[in-house]
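Reopening this one. Same input as before:
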Amino acid sequence: MQFEGIKSLIFDYGGTLDTNARHWARVLWEGYVNAGIPVSEADFREAYVHGERTLARQRIIMPEDDFRAVLMKKVDIETRFLVDEGRWAVDAGGRKRLSDAVADYGYEYARRTTAHSREVLGRLRPYYGMVLVSNFYGNIGTILRDFRLDCFAHVVESAVVGVRKPDPAIYRLGVDATGCRPGEVLVVGDSYDKDVVPAHAVGCATAWLKGEGWTADEPDGELADCVITDLSDLLKHLRHD
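Same output, byte for byte:
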């Protein structure tokens, strides 16, 4: 379909611009395998959830942290958990070395993917206002500068505004930032539940960037106005140079 009457685009960040719709657990598991860390995927997934919950509860990520620093802190928490729970027998030096290797793997993955995203955004930017709406730790500005994605007129970050997806209120803030009516805004995100559903609830058009999720279960996608499998697919539906 060709979107008509759209004046502004709202993008999600994590899983959309940095992995092109691959769940970060999938990327980091590849990093564990690549580094040769001898744990099962089930144990890794438990450590991943522990890491996400720890970062959500505690102020560990600082505003000046770039994405390499974020990943090093995230993977450090995960691997400490694996050692503490007896899932991985390794000395402190070996754990740190392999943890950093996983973080480097994830950072390079994000660096390549954000370069692709930057090219797509650059082609759309002359025609549309752009806003970012993200669940993040308070350092999204540092991340955007690191990957040269600081092309958004406004950024709505959960840690700053005090509301998180899937609460539709965060998308209402995003729409307000565009200066447009909801029907003039297209929201692009990789999470059906956290992006498409709340954006639809506030009246926006939606493009679901569908990829490799956390589980094999898939939503029916009925609320999405279009389904894409690569960010560049947006160019088929929107004006661009």
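So the earlier flakiness isn't reproducible anymore. For the record, The chain is about 45% helix and 10% strand.
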